[in-house]
């Protein structure tokens, strides 16, 4: 479907620099306070509010509804910039942007317009999908049941990333009786919702990825969404957010290593110059880090283009074109994950080759870059992404679009 045949109310892109300039002062403020939050493990309530008030959560909403109309590559470029300031924040907003994307892909309706108005007003959505413990692959313990004229949600989720900052939660559940897979959108302020900041990972420590408990929470009928209708490239989308996070970490490594080399006064007797900033070998290390960060960002943004094609094809009449765009979105985001993870982990290790033992001091928190990158790279195991890409290349096997985690068969 060519550009001029697209419906007028799609988000196909805007002037990126104009859009980014709206948020860069906020990104700069976030960067100034990022180390303090990391040091104190202080959740970023205030930075999230800055972004909400500035309309960051509505950048993908079409212009006709008050949003910025950004394309997916533009969204992910913005998330790279935000991740450079603080890598926790794009991941905390991951569930929000995925829910926005689902509403963008939904058929036009009064209900969809209500959600657009909420996004433009600054409301954001968290997520609660994953269950831990004895739940088996394919099972969902969280249930929606009918009691009289009410729909009630009950269950417990972990990895509820960003929900502690959100106005709404996107909850994956099943309906009692039919076992239909659904998304229940409920307000965080609703009676029966309990949130905990109990994420104990060694990286990405302030994403708000804790537990959420739902006890007889009322679900409005219009906020119960059939999971089968969810946008096809959702798993690619979730991975693209993590790619933006990784690329931002790479750029933060480049920023920090250059600054520390620039400021460093002590030199080794085995070095090549009277100042570290003039040492040719140190310059080489920093240059290699810069190249790794460049390649990571370029790959992450390139991988977002098939998802934009899939979004646009959703509103066309060419099923074959839409199918291929979704295949490309899944495969390219997966292949990018394999490469970008390696690039950024290498960059976050090379940093210490440029700075020596003093860079390991806890007060500098330079280790956070590796810890954060390692944590993000562990999502959606990349070894399986490599197999899926290989199976496509060899056998033309279409990639899976949804996967689950849980206890395997005995």
UniProtKB/TrEMBL annotation:
Residues 28-111 form the Acyl-CoA dehydrogenase/oxidase N-terminal domain. GO terms for molecular function: 3-methylbutanoyl-CoA dehydrogenase activity; flavin adenine dinucleotide binding; monooxygenase activity. Residues 141-217 form the Acyl-CoA oxidase/dehydrogenase middle domain. Pathway: Sulfur metabolism; dibenzothiophene degradation. It catalyses: dibenzothiophene + FMNH2 + O2 = dibenzothiophene 5-oxide + FMN + H2O + H(+); dibenzothiophene 5-oxide + FMNH2 + O2 = dibenzothiophene 5,5-dioxide + FMN + H2O + H(+); dibenzothiophene + 2 FMNH2 + 2 O2 = dibenzothiophene 5,5-dioxide + 2 FMN + 2 H2O + 2 H(+). This is Dibenzothiophene monooxygenase. It is an enzyme of class 1 (oxidoreductase). Pfam families: Acyl-CoA_dh_2, Acyl-CoA_dh_M, Acyl-CoA_dh_N. One of its GO terms (biological process) is L-leucine catabolic process. Its EC number is 1.14.14.21. CDD domains: DszC. Its main location: cytoplasm. GO terms for cellular component: cytoplasm. Residues 243-380 form the Acyl-CoA dehydrogenase C-terminal domain. It is found in: Cytoplasm. Keywords: Flavoprotein, FMN, Monooxygenase, Nucleotide-binding, Oxidoreductase. Belongs to the DszC flavin monooxygenase family. It comes from Aquitalea magnusonii.
């Amino acid at each position: 479907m060519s550009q001029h045949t697209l419906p007028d109310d799609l988000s196909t892109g805007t002037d990126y620099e104009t859009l980014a300039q709206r948020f860069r002062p906020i990104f700069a403020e976030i960067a100034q306070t990022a180390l303090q939050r990391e040091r104190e493990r202080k959740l970023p309530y205030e930075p999230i509010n800055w972004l909400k008030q500035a309309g960051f959560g509505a950048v993908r909403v079409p212009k006709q509804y008050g949003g910025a109309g950004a394309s997916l590559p533009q969204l992910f470029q913005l998330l790279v910039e935000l991740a450079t300031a603080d890598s926790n924040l794009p991941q905390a907003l991951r569930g929000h942007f995925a829910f926005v994307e689902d509403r963008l892909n939904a058929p036009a309706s009064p209900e969809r317009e209500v959600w657009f108005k909420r996004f433009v007003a600054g409301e954001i959505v968290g997520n609660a999908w994953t269950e831990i413990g004895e739940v088996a692959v394919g099972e969902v313990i969280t249930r929606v049941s009918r009691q009289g004229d009410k729909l009630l949600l009950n269950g417990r989720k972990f990895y509820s990333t960003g929900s502690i900052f959100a106005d709404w939660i996107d909850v994956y559940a099943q309906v009692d009786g039919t076992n239909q897979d659904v998304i229940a959108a409920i307000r965080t302020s609703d009676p029966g919702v309990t949130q905990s900041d109990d994420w104990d990972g060694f990286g990405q420590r302030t994403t708000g990825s804790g537990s959420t408990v739902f006890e007889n929470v009322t679900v409005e009928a219009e906020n119960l969404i059939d999971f089968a209708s969810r946008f096809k490239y959702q798993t690619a989308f979730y991975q693209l957010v993590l790619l933006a996070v990784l690329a931002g970490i790479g750029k933060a490594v480049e920023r920090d290593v250059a600054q520390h080399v620039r400021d460093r006064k002590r030199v080794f007797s085995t070095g090549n110059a009277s100042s570290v900033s003039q040492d040719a070998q140190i310059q080489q290390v920093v240059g290699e880090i810069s190249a790794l960060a460049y390649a990571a960002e370029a790959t992450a943004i390139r991988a977002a283009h098939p998802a934009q094609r899939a979004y646009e094809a959703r509103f066309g009449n060419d099923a074959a074109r839409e199918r291929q765009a979704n295949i490309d979105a899944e495969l390219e985001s997966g292949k990018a994950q394999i490469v970008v993870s390696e690039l950024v982990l290498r960059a976050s290790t090379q940093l210490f080759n440029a700075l020596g033992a003093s860079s390991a001091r806890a007060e500098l928190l330079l280790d956070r870059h590796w810890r954060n990158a390692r944590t993000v790279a562990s999502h959606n195991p990349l070894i399986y992404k490599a197999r899926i890409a290989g199976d496509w290349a060899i056998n033309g096997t279409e990639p899976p679009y949804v996967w689950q985690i849980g206890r395997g068969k005995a």
